[in-house]
Amino acid sequence: MTSPSDHEPDAPHLAGVPDEFQRLWTPHRMVYIQAGREPLRQDCPFCAAPEGEDTDTLIVARGKTAYVLLNLFPYNSGHLLVCPYRHIATYDQATPEEVAEIGALTQTGMRVLRDVSHCDGFNLGMNQGAIAGAGVDAHLHQHIVPRWASDANFFPIIAKTKALPQLLGEVRQAIADAWPQ
Q: Cβ of 153: how many Cβ atoms within 10 Å?
């Protein structure tokens, strides 16, 4: 006859036993996972963001006609979006003032990211319309994606997974602190 303790694992040794799994700690992705369980917000996230607190909405800088925030679902750590405050869908609808400020904020964002993250290059772009790949196609936004010589690996290609080494709040704070006043 066996006792219950004969079937219990040797608990003191389990916590430190390595296994074949690698772990990617990406707690900020929980927002994306939980979004599938909750009703989607119907209003525009880029119109709503400036109404909230910068730390909560991931805004790193505000201008007169446009602002900069971290992408909630980044391609790389430090992935910024430059958005006009005005709800417009495409670049040709922007005023000359908005175009100038989006450009100036993009340049500043690149300089700040280079200083803060020591990136080697950037991908810049605007996807205009759902057919062109815009996740939020009703509100213009420009992507600033920092790139490093060593940031590519097999995860995105094989496993459809992107490893992000920093939490969004930490990245937002570092960029906001480095942003010129």
A: 12
